[in-house]
Every structure is written in structure tokens, then in C-alpha cells.
Specification:
single chain; about 350 residues; alpha+beta; D-amino Acid Aminotransferase, Chain A, domain 1; 6-stranded antiparallel beta sheet; 4-stranded antiparallel beta sheet; about 35% helix
């Protein structure tokens, strides 16, 4: 088949993250902008790995997800697009490529524009999950500092941008213990990210991420990964912040805080799987996704967020969760990519 690979390339000029302290309580707007503007985008290493995997069985054309993408899709008219593009600008950025492809009637891998748009809006996602009685942490949305005075949540809390991914905007300072800290974080996010702040009651239990692969009755739940916060450096906030994800967690650092597969009971595994399958179905995810969960004080899994465009760094020495879970299930990188492609091809009845 003629497959187009849609991507966003992370600029080579991105600042060295290792130069920033992993434990920071105050951030300037300039520092945050430098740090995480392109965090969601991919490097050539990942783009080429996906291209090479697809090229095992198909012809591949690379199309960067910029303002020229629409005309390129229209000119090339691929049989299907393998979409790993995160998009640029605005809260609907992840939906940009799927919306173009829907208009051009070109099939593509992954979730549609509506699901991608909803899942990037963490509050809308939680509202839908709550309606369907899928457990998620208590929350409220803050647009101004005064909103810190009008809620029924208990401290500690986590404060994050409402529509970001890859840990963007979630720093050590996001873990708040009193109203003064809460107001500070609401001000930081609303002013520096120009969007609402999502405030969630902190869940004190174990944290997991679960990779999903396939559709409908063929959906596979891959082995769960646990983030072991008891292995974090002393003084580091107990969640997977931007600092942990992009500064501590590098090939150069010994940051072995992931158990894959997670050491869990059969009962907990069944609970995790059920919540993930329910979430995948309710949000109408397609082909693949990665779902983050945390246990509450009663040991019950709660959804943190859904990632319909999961990170897929190919190097096994890096802690990229979806490939890590696939390897634990006996699925090598190339097979993982082609399984996603095959799921989309089957969904569109292309063969």
C-alpha cells in the first residue's frame, strides 16, 4: 500500500533539558516556554523508526504536519496515513491532521478528530468519564485566582494546564498543599499557558500506565507499567512531572523507576483492565492509546488521562511506555507499528 506518515519534527535547537534543576518550585514564563514548547513532537529517531517499520511491507511518504500538509495529502492521495502528528497551535491541534484527512476522505490510523480533541481537554474527558461512571479524581476548572476559594476538594492537589500533553506545565510546584500555593499555580498556568487550569484532588495510591492496541473485540490490553515513586530521588514530587519525564528520565541517567510488567495481583490486574477497556470504549478510541491511572486511598483505579497519540520512542534504553509494554507482551517495535496499521486497514475494510 501507499502509506503517508504524518509527523511533527522536534526542532534540533531545543534547549538542553539536563541544564535545568529537576527540583524547581518557581518558573519564569521564558523558562517554561523554552522547556516544553515542542515536548510533544518527535525526533528523527522516532520518525525514521516508524517509517522503517511501515516500509517493511509498504511504500512510505513523509508528510510534515504543517500548513502545507493539506495540499500534499490531496496531491499524493495515499491509501492510508499513519498519523503520529501532534499538531501545532491551539487546543484542537491534535485534531488538525485527522480533520484534513476526513475532508479528503483519506483513511488514517488512530482516533478521529473528535476523540483527539476531547482527550486533549482533560476536563471534558473527565466530565464524560464521570457521566459513564468511570472513576476519575475529583476536580474543578480554574480560570482565575478567585476560583481557588470556591471548591470542595481536599489538599493536597495537582494543578495542570487543561489542554497539554507530555508533562507540559506539570512541575514540582504543581503539587500544592494550601490555598496560597493553589492560587500561585492557577496564576502560573492561566497566564503562561493562556488556558484554564485543571485542579485535581491528589490520589495517594500506586500509579500505572496501560497500553491499548486494536479495536472492538480485538482490543488487547498490554501489560501494565507501574511508576515506582518510592524509587524517586529524595525531595522529588511523587508524580510523573515534566522534570521527571524529560530531565531525570534520560538515557544518561540511572532512572529505573518503572516496573514492566507491574507486580500486581490478578484482582488488581482485572480492575485496571476493566477501567481501561471502559475508558477506551466510552471515548471511542481507535487502533491504539495509552491510559494513565492512579489508585485512590481505597485501592481503586482512577483515570488520570488518555493518550490517543502515545509516545513511541524506539530506543529500549529510554522509558517510552507504549513500546515498553509491547515488548513485555512479546511484540517488537516493527510489529507494534504494523499492528496499529493493520488495525486501521481492517477498520476501513481496505483489504
Amino acid at each position: 500500500m501507499n502509506v503517508a506518515l504524518a509527523y511533527n519534527l522536534k526542532p534540533e535547537s531545543e534547549p538542553l533539558l539536563e541544564s535545568v534543576s529537576p527540583i524547581v518550585n518557581n518558573h519564569s514564563k521564558n523558562l517554561q516556554t523554552q522547556l516544553d514548547t515542542y515536548a510533544e513532537w518527535d525526533t528523527w529517531e522516532t520518525i525514521n523508526a516508524v517509517k522503517d517499520a511501515i516500509a517493511c511491507y509498504n511504500n512510505v511518504t513523509l508528510i510534515e504536519a504543517d500548513e502545507n500538509a493539506y495540499n500534499k495529502f490531496r496531491e499524493i492521495k495515499p491509501d492510508i496515513v499513519f498519523n503520529i502528528a501532534e499538531g501545532a497551535f491551539g487546543v484542537s491541534r491534535e485534531a488538525q491532521i485527522p480533520a484534513m484527512l476526513d475532508m479528503l476522505q483519506i483513511p488514517y490510523t488512530g482516533s478521529d478528530a473528535l476523540t483527539l480533541g476531547i482527550c486533549l481537554d482533560k476536563a471534558r474527558t473527565k466530565e464524560i468519564l464521570s457521566y459513564y461512571k468511570v472513576p476519575t479524581a475529583k476536580f474543578f476548572v480554574a480560570d482565575k485566582i478567585e476560583d481557588a476559594d470556591n471548591h470542595e476538594l481536599s489538599f493536597p492537589m495537582i494543578v495542570k494546564p487543561i489542554s497539554e500533553g507530555s508533562g507540559k506545565g506539570i512541575f514540582a510546584s504543581s503539587f500544592v498543599h494550601n490555598k496560597e500555593e493553589l492560587k500561585r499555580e492557577i496564576k502560573r498556568i492561566t497566564s503562561e499557558y493562556n488556558q484554564s487550569a485543571l485542579v485535581e484532588e491528589f490520589l495517594s495510591g500506586r500509579e500505572f500506565t496501560v497500553a491499548m492496541l486494536g479495536n472492538n473485540g480485538d482490543t488487547k490490553v498490554l501489560p501494565a507499567i507501574e511508576m515506582r515513586y518510592d524509587k524517586y530521588p529524595e525531595g522529588t514530587a511523587p508524580f510523573y512531572s515534566y522534570e521527571a519525564k524529560w530531565i531525570l528520565d534520560t538515557k544518561e541517567n540511572d532512572f529505573d523507576v518503572f516496573d514492566c510488567p507491574a507486580n500486581i495481583t490478578k484482582e488488581l490486574e482485572e480492575k485496571l483492565n476493566k477501567v481501561c477497556i471502559d475508558t477506551y470504549r466510552v471515548l471511542k478510541c481507535r487502533d491504539w492509546s495509552r491510559i494513565d491511572l492512579r489508585l485512590d486511598k481505597n485501592g481503586e483505579p482512577n483515570i488520570i488521562e488518555i493518550n490517543p497519540l502515545p509516545g513511541i520512542i524506539p530506543d529500549p534504553n529510554e522509558n517510552s511506555s507504549f513500546p515498553k509494554a509491547a515488548r513485555a507482551a512479546g511484540i517488537e517495535y516493527n510489529d507494534m507499528i504494523n499492528t496499529v496499521l493493520a488495525s486501521a486497514i481492517k477498520r476501513y475494510n481496505l483489504l
